[in-house]
Write a structure and sequence with these properties.
The protein is α/β, with parallel strands linked by helices and about 220 residues long. About 50% of the residues lie in helices and about 10% in strands. The chain is built from 11 helices and 4 strands, in the order H-H-E-H-E-H-E-H-E-H-H-H-H-H-H. A 4-stranded parallel beta sheet has the order 2-1-3-4, sandwiched between helices.
Length: about 220
C-alpha cells in the first residue's frame, strides 16, 4: 500500500537529482521502472495538493495544527513537504506543480524571502498566489502569538529550563527582547525547532493561531 512517507522519500530523491528517481532515465515510463515512483505514488495516494515548507519544523507545526482541527491531510490528498531550505523552492515547484506532477501548490515563506519565492515559482512555471507570508519566520509567529511568558512555560514543561537559563546568560543575548531570545534558542540544538514546532502549536489558544498558518490550513 502506498504511504506518504514513501512519496516524500521519492520526491527527496528526485529533487536531489537521483537518476533512478522519477525525473531520471529510470523515471516514470521507463521500461525498467519498478512502479515505486513519485508519479505512481501520487496517483495511488490521490494527491491533489503539495504544501511546500522550508524545513521539518514547519512541517511539524502545520501537521500539529491540522491534527488539532481533526484533519488528516494525507487522507484529504494533501502532502506536506520539507524542501530542505528556501533555496530549493524552484526545484520542488517544478517537480510537484504544473510542470511536474500537476499538483496544486501552496505553502509558507518568510517576508525576507518573498521575492526569492516569487522568482523561483515563476522560473518553475508555477503560480505564486497560494503562498502565505510569515513576518520573520514561523517560529517567530508562534512565539508572538503565544506571548513570551507562555512560550517560556512550554520550554519549562518540556524540561529545557536549565538549557534556557544557560542560553540567557550568554553575552550575545544581553539586551535582546525575550521574543528574539526565544526564537534564537529554538535553533540552537539539532531537532529542537522540530520538537517545538509541534509543542508551540499545541499550546496555542485556537483563537490566536498566527494568521499565515491559519490561512494556510483554511486553504487546504
Amino acid at each position: 500500500m502506498a504511504d506518504m512517507k514513501a512519496f516524500r522519500d521519492e520526491i527527496g530523491r528526485w529533487a536531489a537529482g537521483d537518476p533512478d528517481g522519477p525525473g531520471g532515465p529510470n523515471g516514470p515510463g521507463d521500461p525498467g521502472d519498478s512502479g515505486g515512483t513519485a508519479r505512481g505514488l501520487a496517483a495511488a495516494l490521490g494527491l491533489r495538493t503539495a504544501v511546500l515548507l522550508e524545513g521539518p519544523s514547519d512541517v511539524a507545526a502545520v501537521e500539529a495544527l491540522a491534527a488539532r482541527h481533526g484533519r488528516d491531510l494525507a487522507a484529504e490528498g494533501v502532502c506536506v513537504v520539507s524542501m530542505g531550505g528556501a533555496m530549493n523552492v524552484a526545484r520542488y515547484a517544478g517537480l510537484l506543480g504544473p510542470p511536474g506532477l500537476g499538483l496544486r501548490l501552496t505553502g509558507l515563506c518568510d517576508e525576507g524571502e518573498r521575492g526569492f519565492y516569487a522568482r523561483g515559482l515563476e522560473r518553475a512555471g508555477a503560480p505564486s498566489g497560494g503562498f502565505f507570508v510569515c513576518a520573520a519566520d514561523l517560529e517567530d509567529e508562534l512565539v508572538r502569538a503565544l506571548g513570551p511568558e507562555r512560550a517560556e512555560e512550554v520550554v519549562r514543561a518540556e524540561g529545557d529550563l536549565r538549557a534556557w537559563q544557560t542560553f540567557l546568560n550568554q553575552p550575545a543575548q544581553h539586551g535582546r527582547s525575550r521574543q528574539r531570545q526565544l526564537r534564537r534558542f529554538l535553533g540552537t540544538k539539532k531537532g529542537r525547532k522540530i520538537r517545538y514546532g509541534r509543542l508551540l502549536v499545541e499550546a496555542l489558544d485556537t483563537e490566536r493561531v498566527p494568521r499565515p498558518l491559519a490561512d494556510l490550513l483554511r486553504s487546504l
